[in-house]
Design a protein that fits this description.
By secondary structure, the chain is an all-beta fold. The chain folds into four domains: 113 residues, Immunoglobulin-like; 162 residues, Chondroitinase Ac, Chain A, domain 3; 82 residues, Immunoglobulins (Immunoglobulin-like); 175 residues, sav2460 like domains (Lipoxygenase-1), CATH 2.60.60.30. Strands 32-33-34-29-36-37 form a six-stranded antiparallel sheet, with no helix packed on it.
Length: 555
C-alpha cells in the first residue's frame, strides 16, 4: 500500500524533494567538522528510464518528463532522441511520481523511491496514443467524440489560462480512452486510491479517459471556477453492462502524489449499443470509474537460483477476474506482503535487474501464503502476450533447438506448457483462453546455441490478429522491446512471426525482430522449420555463430 500506516499528512512531510536539475548531476556534502578524510556523501541520486509508444515500443524523442513529490516540488526535463531521460533528485525520498507526456499521447506515470540508496533506473514509461486530436473555439459549446461516443461535452468559455484569465482562442484537445482490461499497467501510477472519506486502499477499474487541453501557444488549460463538463467513460471491454454497477465513484489521478482521489460519481448508460459511465467534472486529468476494495495479502519470498533472498525485487499483481493491480518491493530477506482483491484469481510476477518469474494463484478471503519461493534465474527472458476481446484466444508458440546440432526443435505452447531441455525448464507460465491475456513465457536460460523463435497463433474467436490490440513485450537483459502486429509485413494470416532469439557459442543473445505473417495452417507442428532454415550447415556445429559471422544479424 502506498501509505504503510502513515497518514496522508504524515507521508507528505516525509516527501521533501529539493529541485536539483537534470542530466545526472550531483552535489557533495561538506566535510565533517573533524576534518575526516572520508569521502563526502552524495546527496543526489539519478532517476532514469525511457519513454516509449505503448503499442510499438518506439522511443518518443523530446517527451517531457518531471518528478514530483507530495509537497509540490518538481524536477523537470525531457527525453533525448532515443527516448531516454535522467533527472537528479535528492536521495532518501520515500515516494516520488515520475510523469511523462508528449504531443499526441496521454500522460503516463510511474511511482519510485530513492530510499536506502536505491537508484531508480530502467523505468519504462509507455504512453498511449491519443484516440482523438481536435481543435475547436473556446467561445463555443463543444462535443468531443471518439468513434461514435461524445466523450467530453463542454460549455462556451469554459477554459482559463494558468493565471486564471478566461481563454477565448482556439483549443487543441487530446482525448484518450484508457482500457486496462488486457494490461492494467496502462493506468497512470497504479491502483492506489483515496476515498472521499479519506479511506486508503486499492481500486478496481471499469474504464478511464484522459483529456488534455492546450491554448494556441501551448499553455495548459483548465476549467474555470464554477464551470463543469460532462464526461463519458466507455465501459472497459472486460466488463459486461449487465453485471456492472448502475452508479460508480469517479476517481481522478493526482500526479503530484501518484494516487487516485475520489471526486463525484457516474451513472451507467447504454445508447446505440454502447455502454459508458456518465458524470460531471470540474477539472481535467485522467478520470477513472472505480471501486475501492478491502484487500488480503499474498505472502511470499523471492530468491535466486542458489536459494539466496533477492532484496528490492519488484513484485506485482494483476487481477485475472478483475481489473486491478498492486506492487511492492521485497525486504532484505526477500519477503513480501502484496495486497490483492479477496476471492480472486491473480497473476503474481517478480522481477529484478531484468530477471523475472510469473505464477498464477487463487486467493480466498484471508491472507494467502505461497507454498514455494519465486525463483529469479540468471539471464532470464520474459515474453508477455496481451490482446483485446476479439479474437478470443491468441496463443503463444516458442520454438528452439532441442539438441546440440540443432537438427530438431522443441515447442512450448498451450499443449506443452513446460519443456525441459538440457537441464533448463522453459515454461508458458500462464495460458489465457478467454480474451485479453496475458500469456507469459519464461526462459531461464537458452540451453543450446541456435535460433529460438516466438510466434503468435489465432486459435479461436472472431476478428484477426491484425485488428486486435495485440502486443508482445520482451524483457531481456534489463531492456524491454515491444512488438505490434500492425508492423508485420505481408498478408495477414493466423500466424504472426514476432521475433527470434539468436544465441551464439558463448551464449550471447541477439534479439532479431521478424515481424512477418506466415501461413502454417492450423497445426502448431507445421510451424516448425527444417534444419536448413535454422541455419544448420554441413561441417558447422554452431549455426548461430556462423550466421553472426556472416553479419546476417549485424544490424
Amino acid at each position: 500500500m502506498f501509505n504503510k500506516g502513515l497518514s496522508t499528512v504524515g507521508l507528505s512531510l516525509l516527501l521533501a524533494l529539493t529541485v536539483t536539475g537534470c542530466g545526472g548531476s550531483s552535489s557533495d556534502s561538506s566535510p565533517d567538522e573533524g576534518g575526516s578524510d572520508q569521502p563526502p556523501v552524495q546527496q543526489e541520486i539519478d532517476v532514469s528510464g525511457v519513454v516509449r509508444d505503448y503499442y510499438t515500443g518506439e522511443p518518443i524523442p523530446g517527451a517531457s518528463v518531471d518528478i514530483t513529490s507530495a509537497d509540490g516540488t518538481k524536477v523537470a526535463g525531457s527525453a533525448g532522441e532515443d527516448g531516454r531521460f535522467t533527472l537528479s533528485v535528492n536521495r532518501g525520498i520515500a515516494r516520488i511520481s515520475v510523469n511523462a507526456d508528449a504531443d499526441g499521447y496521454a500522460e503516463s506515470s510511474s511511482i519510485a523511491s530513492t530510499l536506502d540508496n536505491v537508484e531508480p533506473t530502467g523505468l519504462e514509461l509507455s504512453l498511449l496514443p491519443a484516440n482523438s486530436i481536435q481543435t475547436f473555439s473556446a467561445s463555443t459549446s463543444t462535443n468531443l467524440p471518439v468513434d461514435e461516443l461524445n466523450v467530453v461535452e463542454l460549455g462556451a468559455n469554459a477554459f482559463v489560462l494558468p493565471d486564471g484569465t478566461v481563454y477565448s482562442g482556439d483549443v487543441d484537445a487530446e482525448i484518450t480512452i484508457v482500457d486496462p482490461t488486457s494490461d492494467p499497467s496502462v493506468m497512470p501510477g497504479g491502483y492506489e486510491a483515496v476515498g472521499a472519506d479519506g479511506t486508503e486502499g486499492l481500486m478496481e477499474s471499469w474504464g478511464a479517459i484522459t483529456a488534455n487541453f492546450e491554448s494556441e501557444s501551448g499553455e495548459n488549460l483548465q476549467l474555470g471556477q464554477g464551470q463543469i463538463a460532462t464526461i463519458r467513460i466507455p465501459l472497459a471491454q472486460g466488463r459486461a453492462a449487465a453485471t456492472s454497477p448502475a452508479t460508480i465513484p469517479l476517481f481522478y489521478y493526482d500526479d503530484q502524489e501518484g494516487v487516485w482521489r475520489e471526486e463525484g460519481a457516474a451513472t451507467l448508460v447504454t445508447e446505440n449499443g454502447i455502454s459508458f459511465y456518465q458524470g460531471t467534472v470540474e477539472h481535467f486529468t485522467t478520470w477513472n470509474a472505480d471501486y475501492l476494495y478491502e484487500s488480503v495479502d499474498v505472502i511470499g519470498r523471492v530468491v535466486d537460483e542458489s536459494g539466496d533472498p533477492v532484496a528490492d525485487a519488484l513484485v506485482t499483481s494483476q487481477g485475472q477476474d478483475y481489473i486491478g493491480s498492486s506492487s511492492v518491493r521485497t525486504a532484505n530477506d526477500g519477503t513480501f506482503h502484496l495486497p490483492v482483491r479477496p476471492n480472486s484469481d491473480v497473476l503474481i510476477a517478480a522481477s529484478r535487474n531484468g530477471l523475472s518469474n510469473t505464477t498464477s494463484i487463487s486467493v480466498g478471503d484471508t491472507d494467502f501464503e505461497l507454498g514455494n519461493d519465486i525463483v529469479l534465474s540468471e539471464a532470464a527472458v520474459s515474453i508477455t502476450l496481451t490482446w483485446g476481446e476479439n479474437p478470443e484466444d491468441l496463443d503463444t508458440h516458442f520454438f528452439g533447438p532441442e539438441n546440440e546440432n540443432g537438427s530438431s526443435e522443441f515447442e512450448v505452447y498451450y499443449g506443452n506448457q513446460s519443456v525441459s531441455v538440457n537441464g533448463t525448464l522453459i515454461n508458458l507460465d500462464v495460458d489465457d483462453t478467454t480474451s485479453f491475456g496475458p500469456e507469459v513465457t519464461t526462459v531461464p536460460r537458452f540451453p543450446y546455441p541456435g535460433t529460438y523463435r516466438y510466434l503468435v497463433y489465432l486459435f479461436s474467436g472472431s476478428g484477426t490478429i491484425e485488428d486486435s490490440p495485440a502486443r508482445v513485450e520482451v524483457s531481456i537483459g534489463g531492456e524491454t522491446s515491444v512488438f505490434s502486429p500492425t508492423q508485420a509485413q505481408g498478408t495477414a494470416t493466423d500466424w504472426w512471426a514476432v521475433v527470434n532469439f539468436v544465441v551464439d557459442s558463448e551464449f550471447n543473445v541477439t534479439l532479431q525482430p521478424v515481424q512477418e505473417w506466415r501461413d502454417f495452417g492450423a497445426n502448431p507442428a507445421q510451424a516448425t522449420v527444417s534444419p536448413s532454415a535454422l541455419g544448420v550447415m554441413e561441417g558447422n556445429e554452431n549455426p548461430a555463430k556462423a550466421q553472426v559471422e556472416r553479419k546476417y544479424y549485424a544490424r
